[in-house]
Amino acid sequence: MAGLVVSGAQVSYISQDCEEIPEFLGRKYGHMAKRLDLSFNLLRSLEGLKTFSYLEELILDNNLLGNDLLLPRLPHLHTLTLNKNQISFQRNTCKMSNEFYVSAKLKYVKYSSRADKAFSRLAPGILHSNLL
Fold first, then answer.
1. What are phi and psi of 37, to 5 degrees?
2. Mind telling me which InterPro entries this protein's record contains (predicted)?
3. Residue 91 burial (CB count, 10 A)
4. Phi first, then psi: what are they for 50, rounded to 5°?
5. Interacting residues of 131 by C-beta distance below 8 A, sequence separation 6+
6. Would you call 57 helix, strand, or coil by DSSP?
7. Theoretical Cys-Cys bridge with 35: which of 10, 41, 44, 88, CB 3.0 to 4.6 Å?
8. Domain encompassing residue 15
9. CA–CA separation, 49 vs 62, rounded Å?
10. Global pTM?
11. DSSP state of 50
12. Parallel, antiparallel, or unpaired for β 10-13 and 57-59?
């Protein structure tokens, strides 16, 4: 498991070229991880993330996440980074429920509505669920 770093409640699995969240991560660390860094992988979905029920920070920079992103309910999440993915934040494509900090310097950005323009002024900043 080279590339796996666990320090207290922080779990990092960086640059492993994984296309999905490895099942062993959720099984072994999902119950205790408050910060999860899955940067520099090949993730296209967040399936398997729901086992991380105590997450407060989620770092997903430099992956292949797109407009079909489905973020499971993570009641403690306050920070989400999505830098350098393939998300356009078009209307009705990315639904997030709580108010939290979002960092999203995106590779592909297409502004298609007032909400998108509002997001561009706020990012990084606070994203309210009523914007999308």
1. -115, 115
2. LRMDA, LRR_dom_sf
3. 12
4. -65, -15
5. 115, 118, 119, 122
6. strand
7. 10
8. 4-131
9. 17
10. 0.71
11. G
12. unpaired
Rounded distance between C-alpha atoms, residue 8 and residue 65, angstroms: 27
Half-sphere exposure of 17 (CA within 13 A, CB side): 1
- Strand 35-37 to strand 57-59: parallel, antiparallel, or no bridges (unpaired)? parallel
By C-alpha distance, which of 88, 60, 90 is closest to 74?
60
CA-to-CA dists, residue 112 to 57, 95, 132, angstroms: 28, 16, 12
Residue 74 makes CB contacts below 8 A (sequence gap 6+) with 49, 50, 52, 53, 55, 58
* Number of domain units in the chain: 1
* Maximum average pLDDT range among 13-17, 73-77, 122-126: 13-17
Residues above pLDDT 90, as percent of the chain: 48
Contact 43, 20 (CB under 8 A): yes
CATH number at residue 124: 3.80.10.10
Residues 6+ apart with CB under 8 A from 113: 90, 91
The CA-atom distances, in angstroms, between 57 and each of 10, 80, 91, 93 are 9, 6, 24, 22
